[in-house]
Amino acid sequence: MGWQLRFRWIQKPGNDVFFIWTQNWLDSEFGRGFSALDRRGAAKIVRTFRF
Q1: Which pLDDT tens digit goes with each residue over 14-43?
Q2: What is the C-alpha separation between 38 and 36, in angstroms, rounded?
Q3: What integer pLDDT is reported at residue 41 of this predicted model?
Q4: Looking at beta carbons, which pairs linking 23-26 to residues 24 or more positions away fall under 8 Å?
Q5: What is the pLDDT of residue 9?
């Protein structure tokens, strides 16, 4: 099982900031619930210069 959270902020057209967080779990074989498999985060900044 997993989920992904995305946040995008558009300051003005062509200038964006992205934040992404992903987390995945693995179901145990013995019915004990889920254990964390991995967690990841990323960020990206996009800037456009016009002249």
Answers
A1: 899 999 999 998 887 777 788 888 999 999
A2: 6
A3: 97
A4: 25/1
A5: 96
Dihedral sign of CA atoms 11, 13, 16, 21 in order: positive
**Domain assignment present for 51:** no
42 is in which domain, residue-wise?
Answer: 2-46
Contact 44, 21 (CB under 8 A): no
The residue that leads in pLDDT, 10 or 50, is 10
φ and ψ at residue 5, rounded to 5 degrees: -110, 130
Structural domain tally of the chain? Answer: 1
